[in-house]
Every structure is written in C-alpha cells, then in structure tokens.
Design goal:
Layout lengths: L1 H10 L1 E3 L9 E3 L1 H5 L1 H18 L5 E5 L3 H12 L2 E7 L7 E7 L4 E7 L8 E9 L3 H12 L3 E10 L5 H4 L5 E6 L1
Parallel strand pairs: 3-4, 3-7, 7-8, 8-9
Antiparallel strand pairs: 1-2, 4-6, 5-6
C-alpha cells in the first residue's frame, strides 16, 4: 500500500494562485498520464471499499474529476455510476443544492432518477478542500432518500478542515496535505 501511495503522491503537482490568488491548486492530471499511478488509485479505492463497504450499490462522481475515477471503481466493484454535475449540464428533471467553494459559489445537480430510495452510495472526487462540494453531494443523495456510506478522495487538504463540514460522513483520502 505504501508503495502505491508514494507513486500517487509523486504524480500530484501544485500550481500556486490557481484559479485565484492564494489558492495552491493540487493537480491530479499527471496521475491520468501514468497507467501505474491510475491503477494504484483504483486499486487502493477498491481495496478500501471491499473491506469497509461491501454493501455499496452505487458510486456517485462529482463533476468533473470524480468522473475520472468513479466509473473505473464502479466497474471493478460491479455497481453502477451516477454523475453530479454543475447546474445546467444535465437533461430532464433534476434536483440541485447550492454550496460554497474556497474561491466561489456554485450549484450542483443530479437527475431525479439517478439514485433510488434506499440505495447505499459512495461519493468520489479528486480533492476535498473546504467540503462544500462533497456536502452538497451528500445533501443531493439524502434528498433522494438514499444512504451515503462515505466519501472517497484522492487528495485531502486537512488544513482546510473540509471533513468537519461532512459531520458524521466518513472520508477516505489517499493523500493528505
């Protein structure tokens, strides 16, 4: 496990002042270019989920980087995948929740029929910062009367205390800063 985490950590690079001044952006794109690093992320998430959440029914990925890891994990687990997108990007009836990022305000939405009542859901994204996006995702899942088992992220910025916003929802992160 430590070998895989080291490989992933080496692929993450920081861009200062992006998208606005004062934000040290953690870029996971090099993980996607390295097949071994991408496999390591998927392996570690799969191992954690099989060990901790064998009852999972659905993986929900956040726009846009949750779309990169979520379908890979869902396929390995033999469960479905559903997206949560930025407002206005999904057709048909949707539900939405407004939230704040460390540098802006936004709204997340999901198709009304993406999650069924009673389903056990894991939410996946690339990064947990202030927790606004993952909190909004949890609220969308709860609106559909499904159960959020936990959240999975590649990177967690612990110094921003985003997991506190998620209250009792467990967060599994591969890399912490």
């Amino acid at each position: 496990m430590a070998e895989k985490v080291d490989l992933i950590a080496k692929c993450i690079r920081t861009f200062p002042d992006f998208p606005t001044k004062g934000i040290p952006f953690k870029d996971i794109c090099p993980i996607l270019k390295d097949p071994k690093a991408l496999a390591a992320v998927t392996d570690l998430f799969e191992e954690h989920v099989r060990r901790t959440y064998p009852q999972v029914d659905l993986i929900v990925g956040l726009d846009a980087r949750g779309f990169l890891f979520g379908p890979l994990l869902a396929q390995r687990l033999g469960v479905g995948f559903a997206p949560i997108r930025k407002k206005g990007k999904l057709p048909g009836p949707t539900l939405s929740v407004a939230y704040s990022l460390e540098y802006a305000k936004a709204e997340a939405e999901m198709q009304e029929d993406a999650v069924s009542a009673g389903q056990k859901v894991l939410i996946i994204d690339d990064l947990l910062a202030t927790g606004g996006t993952l909190y909004a995702a949890c609220e969308l899942i709860k609106q559909q009367k499904a159960e959020v088992l936990g959240c999975l992220v590649v990177v967690e910025l612990k110094y921003l205390s985003g997991s506190e916003k998620l209250q009792s929802t467990p967060v599994f992160s591969l890399i912490q800063y």
